[in-house]
Design a protein that fits this description.
The chain has 350 residues and is α+β, with helices and mostly antiparallel strands. It has three domains: 67 residues, no CATH class; 123 residues, 2-Layer Sandwich (Tetrahydropterin Synthase, Chain A), CATH 3.30.479.30; 62 residues. The strands form five sheets. Strands 8, 9, 10 and 11 form a four-stranded antiparallel sheet that branches. Strands 3-2-7 form a three-stranded antiparallel sheet. The longest helix is centred in the last third of the chain and has 67 residues. The chain is rod-shaped.
Length: 350
């Protein structure tokens, strides 16, 4: 091997060693924080005597990040004899707390609620009848409470806490109230249940950084024993039928009253008219009776009769004469009908 060839081999060896022996490049690493999130940069290394401070809410509050994009610093860690044997390790860890509101609906049916699983709040009455009720709940994390929430629940999200601790607390309080009443009484105590739940749950989780805005109960009781539900449904249907029957009866009675009042009004009207007509006839009769005793009235009636006769006379004289019997002419019947002789023009002129 010549000297030049040896130099070439040495050069190639050095180049290969230098090429393969370079440690990896420290590639910059960035993470972004959404507008609905709060970021905390937690040191992964440091003085071991200060690790206890991580257990405080104040420590976490001091590690809040105002920027929405942060760079994660790295440190080279040697893992072998060669100077290039090692890796870049993070010096801090970015922890993000999502403050967005979360709503949960816990029901027994797969077709309703947040989850298809049975998440209803199951409780039991004083007389040991098990049933479930549906609850809904909405909560979020206020910006000043993010450090408190992170200190209390570390790596848990608000959605996780809603489905675990918040739901369990609601169930516990509701069960305490239900255990005080029998089933028949409990159906009218829904407002008391929800009031007790709100009074206990809202301040309890406010101290843990979770602000609950809404807690409500919806739907009816769903009983473990289907026969109970069927009996309640049948009772309710019977009650509704009775209500409808009572309403129809009251309506019919009201209609009968209206008809009776109308009939009475019509009868009173007819009686009033008849009474008025009778009174008028009586007054006319009394007036006529009194007038007949007055000579002037008789003469007036005679003049009326004569006037009517003249108005109807056709200019001819009577052809027949009726002879009345002896005595009162007003009471005796006619006895003879005589034909009068025709009236001549000569006799008329005389």
């Amino acid at each position: 091997m010549t000297r030049q060839t040896l130099k070439l081999l040495v050069t190639l060896t050095l180049v290969a060693v230098m090429t393969t022996g370079c440690k990896p490049y420290d590639k910059p690493e960035f993470e972004e924080i959404d507008t609905s999130e709060t970021g905390f940069l937690i040191p992964l290394e440091g003085d071991t005597t200060k690790q206890q401070s991580f257990e405080s809410e104040t420590y976490l509050d001091q590690r809040k990040v105002a920027a929405k994009r942060v760079e994660i610093p790295h440190r080279w860690v040697q893992t072998g004899r060669a100077w290039w044997a090692g890796q870049w390790m993070d010096m801090v860890r970015l922890v993000k707390v999502d403050r967005s509101p979360v709503t949960r609906e816990w029901t027994a049916e797969a077709t309703s609620g947040t989850s298809k699983a049975n998440q209803a709040i199951w409780i039991e009455s004083k007389d040991s009848v098990g049933f479930s009720v549906g609850f809904n709940c909405t909560a979020y994390i206020q910006e000043p409470n993010t450090a408190k929430f992170l200190y209390m629940y570390r790596s848990k999200s608000l959605a996780d806490m809603m489905d675990t601790e918040v739901r369990a607390r609601i169930q516990s309080v509701a069960a305490e109230v239900a255990a005080e009443y029998d089933l028949d009484e409990l159906r009218s105590k829904k407002q008391e249940i929800i009031d007790k739940v709100r009074t206990d749950v809202i301040p309890f989780f406010e101290q843990r950084g979770i602000s609950i805005t809404t807690i409500g109960m919806f739907g009816g009781f769903t009983y473990q024993n289907v026969a109970i539900q069927n009996a309640i449904d049948e009772t309710f249907v019977a009650q509704q039928l009775k209500v409808v029957a009572d309403a129809k009866l009251k309506a019919q009675l009201k209609e009968n009253e209206v008809i009776e009042l109308a009939a009475k009004a019509e009868a009173n009207k007819a009686e009033t008219i008849a009474t008025g007509e009778a009174a008028a006839i009586t007054k006319v009769a009394e007036a006529t009776s009194k007038a007949q005793k007055d000579p002037l009235f008789i003469q007036l009636r005679l003049l009326e009769v004569e006037n009517a006769r003249i108005a109807k006379w056709d200019g001819k004289y009577p052809v027949y004469m009726m002879q009345l019997g002896q005595g009162d002419t007003q009471t005796q019947a006619p006895q003879m009908l005589l034909q009068l002789p025709p009236v001549s023009a000569t006799s008329v002129s005389r």
